[in-house]
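Possible regression after last week's pipeline update?

I re-ran a chain I had predicted before the update to compare outputs. Posting the input and the new output here so someone can diff against the archived version. Not blocking, just want to make sure nothing changed silently.
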Amino acid sequence: MVSVVQASRARRFRSGLRLAGAVVLTVFGAAAGQAGGPLTLADLSDLRCRFGAAQQPFLPQLVAARRAYQDKRTLSIVALGSSTTEGSGASSPEKTYPAVLQEELKRRLPDTDVRVINKGVGGQSAYDMLLRMDADAIEPRPSLVIWQTVVNDAIRHVGEEKLAKILRKGISKVGEAGIDLVMMDLQWLPREDRYPKYDDYRAVLKNTAAEHGVSVFPRYAMMKSWARSKQFTEQELVGMDGLHMVDASYRCLAVRLADGIASALTGAKPEMAETSKPTN
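New output (post-update):
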């Protein structure tokens, strides 16, 4: 027997699909061209992930990754981070964002050897990651590192100046190794007022990345847009603890990362669906 809660979620999901269908014509050409064929049911479902993409574009500059793609048709990525990267809240390892990202990039770049290495350790601070950066992020010799960090620093209030110094050291390490870097913004939280300095720590990450010309994946704004779109329930974005992401939000995270990375490598315009207002 289907419960009232399950029926309600099903109605909301069908409503989201109908709304996604309204923008199919906007993205059909890009999606079909990138995937090499017509849109599938999975593509239609993923359209809800792209609401707000025009307002929060992810257009990274990936010099090393593009060179590897053009010269060798290879793409090696290290996902360095804490619980978001490790996959806390995911129902299985295959549902983590690095695993989905690998599959999405393989689908978009079918002639390329794609490998995404998950180096996430739950609960770690930026300093913890700096200590293992050489072994986990640089020694594998990827062409791209995606560094997801700062949320634990914000929760523990480690100090903004201290954090900025740590981030600068990490950014310099990756850059000196000739590896591309993308910093991932903190997640949107339904009850982030529990952490009064949350936005201040987000600003440290964004400002430090800007100082060094590093691309930032706008996760916070994306998640906020998903929440406002009413196509997702709160439980599809953040788990019962109000902090960790879950399968649906991990998938959307990977879809949007893959859109931007594939676009940077191929020069194709990334898929986007419009919304009426930007979110910050």
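Follow-up from reviewer: compared with the archived run. Residues 183 and 216 are 5 Å apart (CA to CA). Marking as no regression found.
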